[in-house]
Amino acid sequence: MKTDISPKLHGLSRKSDKNEYGKKGGAGGKGTWGAPGDEARFHQTINRSDPNYDPDETEPFTLDEIQPRRTRNELKKIVDENISMFLELGDQNRYSNELRQLTNSMFRFYIVRKSVSLGLHDKDWAVKNLVTDRRLISQEHLERGLEDCFQLAKDWELDSPGSLNKLKAFVKSLEDKEYIASVFLPSQLYFLENQTSIKSKISDELQEFFTSLDIDEFVKFVVELKCRPAHAYVIKYIFKQTLEQSNAKIEFGARLLVALSETSGTGPITILEFMRGIELALIESEDILIDHPNGQLTLSQLIARVVVDECLPPAFFDSVLSLREDAAGSQILNQAKEVYEGHSVSATLHTIWAQEKSLEEE
Fold first, then answer.
1. pTM for the whole thing?
2. What are the backbone dihedrals phi and psi of residue 327, each rounded to the nearest 5 degrees, phi first?
3. SS3 string of the chain?
4. 137-141: long-range contacts (C-beta < 8 A, 24 or more apart)?
5. Cβ(267)–Cβ(260) under 8 Å?
6. Alpha-carbon distance 110 to 116, whole Å?
7. pLDDT digits over 93-144, tens only?
8. Structural contact between residues 149 and 166, judged by C-beta atoms closer than 8 angstroms
9. Torsional sign, CA 34, 37, 39, 42
10. pLDDT at 9 over 50
């Protein structure tokens, strides 16, 4: 009995054009059709009404060139050049866009620090326009960059007297426009005037902590200190003093870092303050390692550990632009990244200091 075939199904019929796809011509085996290269000799018809039609597979497309990954020093050089060109030419839209594309949000505070250091005295209006561009700089990064400037102001004062007063006036103008919190400037000035006694107090409290191992008590001390500019030095001093401890106490140092981080839910120290504290330790690492020549691996493991424990994001490894590529701090940071990216890193770092070992067994 002959059955009518719908035109839509004609292409599926065994009685459709016999030679539509050409003869096998001896090529191929059972279940195959044609020889390699035959597909280039036959015209393929695209049916855009076909339910299996995928425009991504058939429409023209271009492949973007993959840019090689830049080192921290290469990135720093490009960022510095863009800031210098902006201060010279004043094309804010162009250079703001370029800086956004060049940098991840983790280290845009560096743009604040660098632009203020270059343009504070004669280009302060241009600097203000750049650092208050909310598409580029958040309030948190603005305050973090300005905090660095206050710590650098003593050196600036030697080269250009009046730098500190100029910086104060610049920050006050930002405060008046509500670009930064009203407590920012008073807290910075308080820390500048009292930093010697504050740092001494932090060091003493840490010595007490490594005796008592009371994490809650030390976190309470930092909260009651009520001095945000001191938070970075808390982190720096923990890294320094942890190198002097036994393996079991190093583990407690690592736990203390987690407890102090805001990512723990109760810690008082923000991610950017945490970053700054580790950066300070890395900058001084050559001096630190003079007293602890075997401490490089421990520092690397501690940094990797705080990333594993989510105190910092992995992007931190590529976000420290203040280090020379050949500096000891860069070597420690690169080693920390290797440790972090190693196999079973979480399990390794959580047992490397024998946290199951009791202190009484030492």
1. 0.74
2. -75, 155
3. CCCCCCHHHHHHCCCCCCCCCCCCCCCCCCCCCCCCCHHHCCCCCCCCCCCCCCHHHHCCCCCCCCCCCCCHHHHHHHHHHHHHHHHHHCCHHHHHHHHHHHCCHHHCHHHHHHHHHHHCCCCHHHHHHHHCCCCCCCHHHHHHHHHHHHHHHHHHHHHCCCHHHHHHHHHHHHHHCCCCCCCHHHHHHHHHHHHHHHHHHHHHHHHHHHHHCCHHHHHHHHHHHCCHHHHHHHHHHHHHHHCCCCHHHHHHHHHHHHHHEHHHCCCCECHHHHHHHHHHHHHCHHHHHHHCCCCHHHHHHHHHHHHHCCCCCHHHHHCCCCCCCCCHHHHHHHHHHHHHHCCCHHHHHHHCCCCCCCHHHC
4. 137/108, 137/109, 137/111, 137/112, 138/105, 138/108, 139/179, 139/180, 139/181, 140/270, 140/272, 141/105, 141/108, 141/109, 141/112, 141/272
5. yes
6. 10
7. 788 788 887 766 777 899 999 999 999 988 989 999 999 998 889 999 999 9
8. no
9. negative
10. no
Tokens representing 308?
Answer: 């594993």
